[in-house]
Every structure is written in C-alpha cells, then in structure tokens.
Amino acid sequence: MTSSLRRHDSPPAGSADSAPQAPRPRGGLTARWRALPVLVRHLVAALLALAAVAVLVHYLPSPLDQFRVAKVGYLMLAIAGLQLLVGYSGQISLGHGAFMFVGAYTAALIVLHLPMVPLAGIMVTAVVVGCLAGILVGAATARLHGPYLAGATLALAVGLPSLALRFSDVLGGANGLNFTFRGAPPEVSHLVTSTNHWKALVIWLTVLLAMVVLATLSRGRLGRRLRAIRDDEAAAAMAGIPVGRTKVVAFVVSAGCGSLAGACEFYLMGTATPSSFTPALSLTLLAALVLGGLGSLWGALWGALAVVYFELAGEEVAHALGLSSSVADNLPVVSFGVLLVVIVMAWPMGVQGALRRLGAALRRR
C-alpha cells in the first residue's frame, strides 16, 4: 500500500501535473482591500459614506429631516472624540460638552468679527482652539483617576458656560451669539433643495474627514498605546509607554473633535448660547457612548442616532398622548435613560457589541 501511495504522489516527469503552478490569490477582493494602506481604506470608506448621506438627504421630504441628519453628524463626531478618551484610554470625562462650547463660541466670534474668514478656516481655527483647551485640561488632570477625574471634568462643564454670562459684552450673555449663514454657493445651488440640505452635506463632509483622522489614529501606534494604558497602566509604563503624555494627547484629540462638533452645531443652527452646552449635554454624550458601545468608533454612530431619533419618538409619543408640556419635555430624557439601562443589561458592550455577537453567530453557521 505504501509503494502505491508513493507512485500516486509522484506524477511522471513531463506530464502537466509536474509543471510548477503559480500560487493562487487567496481571499480575492477582501484580501486586496486589506492590502491597501489603512489611510486609503478609511478615505475610500468615508467617500462611500458621504455618497450615501448625499443620496439620503436628497430624498428626504422636508428640511427638518435634513436638519436631523446634520445633527446626527456633529453629535457622532462629538461622541467619537469621547470614544477615544473613554473607550480607548479609559479616562472618564463628564465635561465633553464644554469643548463643544469652546468650538461654537470660537466659530461665532470669528464669524461676527472676522467675516472674511472662509468656513474651512473657521472650522480649522475651532479645532486649534479646542486642542489648546485640551492641552490645558489634559495637563491639569493627567494625574487624576476615576471619580477625581470625572469630578474635575464635570466642574469644567458647569463652569465654562457661565463665562458667557460673566463676559456678556463679548459672548452675548444668556441670549448668546447669533448669525445667519448663507446657503449653498450660486454655482451649486441648483443641486440642493434647501439650506439645510447644503448644511447637512458640509457638516457630514467635515465629520467624515475628522473620522478618517480618528480611525487612522486609533488603528496606529497611538491607539495601541491608549489601549495598553486602559488595560493596565502600570504594565504600559513598564513597557516604556509615556503614560502621562499619551493621556494628554488623548485629551487633546478628544477636545479637538468636541470643538469641531460645536463649530458644526453653530454652523447648522446659527446660534451659540450657554443653555445649549449645559452639563446635561455632557452626560447625554457619555450615555450615548455607552449605549452605542465602548471601544469602537461605530458606537458613536449608534449613539448619535439614538440621541436624535429617540428624542423625536419621545416627543411624538407625548404629543399623541396629550401630555402636559412639563411631562412632555422630560419624557424623551426618561425614555432614553430606560433604553440605556435595558441595552446595557442585555448587551454590556452596547449596540455595537450586540452586532458583533450577531455577526459572529452568523459566521459560525
């Protein structure tokens, strides 16, 4: 039997089977996609996402729906920045809304006092100012952990909006700063159906570019260092990772994203008021992050969708039931809290964690 097997294993010389065969490509399109540089993959994905948003916004029936799509965009950016800080590095922040305040008021002051600055310049300046604020806060809180860090950042969320009341001559007091942005340029105005349509496209373009940066950073050395610090700070320090400096960098990137989200909010709404950036906003962003799923940028999308559309559903239910205004105003918040508790109890890793488990179960079949 052994000699028979050897004869079959060695084809005769000169036959077609004896010719060397070129290695077959494994994985096909998936392998080619994974062979691309990370930045190129993220840019292509962002381009596809922008095209999908453009189609969606074009076919939405009303400017109010287009407004909600734009709101999902800048909230997703704010939550994604918080994801890098909380989900990747393990630092707890209850003051992320303060960085949105910084970005919104930076954009408002530029628009009012330097109207010749283009929109791209306003957005870049908002990011720079937000990063400077992140350096100050990150350096001051680098040695704080757990509830001490949470308390420090909550104090920031409480105290910073009050600056608008303290310096009312510059920041407009309780009424804030207001400005009306122009819609689409005349060259492309025939391609959009409303001002909100154009603003939604601009905001999503801005958000997706920022998401490309975030996704690339989280897949690179910074992301690996942040995860190492989150898992075991002492072990990360013994491995040569500069823990304090890496934490400050995480704060800076997160603050830049929050500030850019605030600038996008000002661009969409045309107003920046201290009542828009209360501690409730910071807590909502953190709750949306947990609901969407910690440790994944996809969780930011699910969290932003939940904030915008669950609030809308709560308002419609309150209207259908004929509830009083005091009850109707609080119903979306209570409903969102109940949803958060249910999802965390059912899927501790949030919506994205549940989708991962579902995908793994489908692949095993």
UniProtKB/TrEMBL annotation:
The chain crosses the membrane at residues 39-60, 72-90, 97-114, 120-141, 148-167, 198-217, 285-310, 330-355. It comes from the Bacteria. Residues 1-10 have a biased composition (Basic and acidic residues). InterPro entries: ABC_transp_permease, LivM-like. GO terms for cellular component: plasma membrane. It is found in: Cell membrane. It is a multi-pass membrane protein. PANTHER family: HIGH-AFFINITY BRANCHED-CHAIN AMINO ACID TRANSPORT PROTEIN BRAE, HIGH-AFFINITY BRANCHED-CHAIN AMINO ACID TRANSPORT SYSTEM PERMEASE. This is Branched-chain amino acid ABC transporter permease. Coiled coil: none annotated. Keywords: Cell membrane, Membrane, Transmembrane, Transmembrane helix. Residues 1-26 are annotated as: Disordered. GO terms for molecular function: branched-chain amino acid transmembrane transporter activity. Pfam families: BPD_transp_2.
